[in-house]
User: Fold this.
Amino acid sequence: MDKKKIYPWYFGAGALVLYSALFVLPSLIGIGYSFTNWSSYSDQISFVGLENFARVFSPDRNYLDYLWNTLWFTVATTVLKTVLALAFAVLLSTGVKGLNVHRAILYMPAILSVLIVGMVFSSILDPANGLLNTTLRAVGLDALAQKWLTDAHLAMWSVIGVDVWRGMGYVMVILLVGILSISPTYYEAAQLDGASSWQQFVRITLPLLRPTLAVAIVLNVLYGLKVFDIVYVLTNGGPGHRTEVLYTAVFSEFSNGRFAVGTALSTVMLVVMVILGVFMIRVLTRNEVQE
Amino acid sequence: MKKTFIALLAALMVAGCSSGSPASGGPASSGAAETKTLTVMASQGWVHDAELDLAKKYEEQTGVHIDYQISPSDQYTSLLTTKLNAGQAADIFMSQSGKFDIVSNLQIEKNGVDLSDQEWTGRLNQAVKDQVSANGKVYGITIWDVSDSYVYLYNKTIFAKHGINPPTSFAEFKAACATLKAAGIQPIYEPMKDGWHHQLNFFDVSAAYDASDPNLVADLNANKTTFAAHPIFKQMIEQMKEIYDAGYWGDNALSDQVSDGPAKMAEGKAAMYVGFMGGLSDIVAAKGKYGADDFGIFAAPYLDNQTISETPAGPSKFIYSKSPNIDAAKKYLAFLAQPENLQYMIDTEPTFNAVPFSGLKTKYSATVSEAIQAHKPGTSTVYQNAVVYLNPQWMDFGKDLTSYLTGDMTADEVIATIDQRRADQADTAQDSNW
Assistant:
């Protein structure tokens, strides 16, 4: 490699300093505060060791249930978004009439504000007067009309459904770019050898799409672990605590002035995300196909 | 040379960015002519037109302009706490009163100004004064209609049509609900979606809790007992579950909203609703099938309760201890507390029937007066104002209650969690009783 062609280190210094000042430093300060009794009730901040973490991991508390809900949401949305986005990306990468219109329609939910999506779907999914149940009843499918956001067994699936609707287009665009960047010569060669469409998908598209898929999955997982807004707007963690996730709990701790417990919860999530992120990138990019 | 230039440029960029980011602010109005403008921080809905009229009058009389800084209600508490912590609050700040909350949340002894020597404190209702006081010193003024309380508003016409009398016990309440449901009328409109309404039932039957043990409030506040140690609290939520499970809150209670309550009552779609006594005017304003004469009031009948509890807390004004205009702020509060100005508030503000000062003329309707006479001996305070560390867990308790009603938690767990949260809060506040 020609070392002269590598830019000198100080080209990245500005970004690095800003990143450190605005992201790394606050994160470290946050981790520091999670070992204290910082709250809105007192000016005194003293070191309390692992007390806040003991509280977070105590079986008497609901935090582990919230962690479970967060993981459930993350896995479900990642799988559904990735599978659906991949299917649509493959479909919309070839000659379909009105290709760009279809792409734009599928991408559109991603540009809507979560608040608006939440309010619209709260209205659509209202059990008494919502569009969905009204339509189901109008066509005689009364049995399918459900209390989408307030039934304890359905609420999380409804939130997942809305989130998949909103986020799938974004993942699709990432995958679409990946698919379009695969050289057509591979497909031509495969066709000459008599490969079926499925074989082409499994043997060419998937392996060459792996780095893009890795990025999409990592982004989805990190988004899922950090989820707050869509849950907050649609159910606010309810009914009861059924759809409570870790960041709604963090929000609640901060609102109640228990800043240290809130930062301890955030710290736990930070550690989980860093470990998962590194692990996933390692696994997903192992034996990566280099063009 | 080129390298040095680029490094310099990068350094300048960084320096430029970092020096611009944390705007230190400093005292907002320092150096301004001190008594020309007074700032008042308030949450949306806390400053009525009547008060703005008075502020204008005050400016005409004294030349001091009152600058009201109103913030959205969902952000106000955190904004106020931040401003107090940063030493940048307004000359006068508004907050919900509450003898425990003002000490733990506002640190009023540090952030507030002692107003005990003000003339109006002699006219302020004692129970209300207690809620703005700490260690015997008065820190705030409550110019708000705190005489109102949450009650059961009911449709007298529907009740009469089905031969039902206002219930005086839980058994009668259940029977009334059963009759109404059998007649195809939703007995109670209980909106749970907003998250703050359904737990009113639990907090408003304080008289029944008090009757079960006269020292209960004192013992809870001194940490000599717990909620779990008193079966009455469990019994209360079990009665609520009985009502919920029987479907008396309607099929869609979990997605029903408070804002639809008055219309549902006005249309006769539900026969009962927990609301403020003054909320009767909202039902009438909804202009449904039923009018003012069709509605009556009774006390929350769980645990055979027959008392409407006092709610002595409400939005109140406090003077910021670091304000450079403390004397001017005191003068403005004294102006607002003048009897003729308080009377103007009652007469002009539609939602006020009274303000908690002596020597004023109230404007209660006949229905409300009757209810006050029948159910409000003034002996019991709503539990969130009587018991320490209860009010801050209002929303969390509401979620627990929903979990219990929908079968995700047991009654024992819900009650134990109240104690756990109180202990957490006490621990955070470094309360020596815990």
